[in-house]
Amino acid sequence: MLGKLLKYEWKSSGKITLLLNAYIILITIFGMIMLQSGFFDELIEGSQADREISAPLIIGSLLVSAYFISMIAVAIAVTLFQVFRFYKNFYTDEGYLMHTLPVSSTQLILSKGLVAFGVLTLSSIILMISGFSIVFRAAPAAERPNLQIVFQEMIPTLAREFGWPTHIFIIYLILATILSGIHAILSFYAALSIGQRFAKHKIIGSIIAYTILNMVEQTISIALMFACGFHRLMISGQNTDVAAFSGSIMIVSIAVTLVLIVAYWFITDFTMRKHLNLE
Fold it and tell me: How far is CA 272 from CA 48, 147, 189, 210, in A?
């Protein structure tokens, strides 16, 4: 049954997501073509003092601004669309149908969460590739080999700064990225689950709940930073202390994220089973 739920969810939410991602791909291709044509040369190469206000400069500046605004807008739209689908399917009138299906609350949450994670991961990859492609293409031809080296050496350099082997650092980045995505999705679900208990103000209740959850997380993060020796680091400022602190906080952050994931899952699942309010 979980497979059918996943198939239904992907069909329902995939179209909008694919359209948004297709838009990013199209404006990336358009930007690459414009960069290849030399349209942005005046904007990229000219110094501030040498630039004169001209139509190409104004149009170029507007196009660059529109590109970055589009990137941000698509990222927000994809996220909010997934959050809206969860709320609409489970905590509005549609919930009467969804919660009478012969499936458990676990399967319902998984069907939404897995698709949301896949959709957000796909969108993030496309946005990153788009950004890197534009930056690389905008760089002067003579600087591109150096820029490529910077990209290639970025992770090994960071790993050395933290005192970790490169392969361990890569594994950590992959694990942290996956857990961060799951945590982000479940934090929205938990906030919506808490907010739906406010019969007449579900949306406002969800926003307040999400704000409070984030405040709690920030408080925990600050406390853990000091527990890992942040105050000593500020006093000494030694590179060895920076590496030790960074390693400690990275490991602790994984553990805390796991705890938060379990907590948010419990809130969402418990609410669906025991405190569902569809009025």
Answer: 58, 50, 11, 18
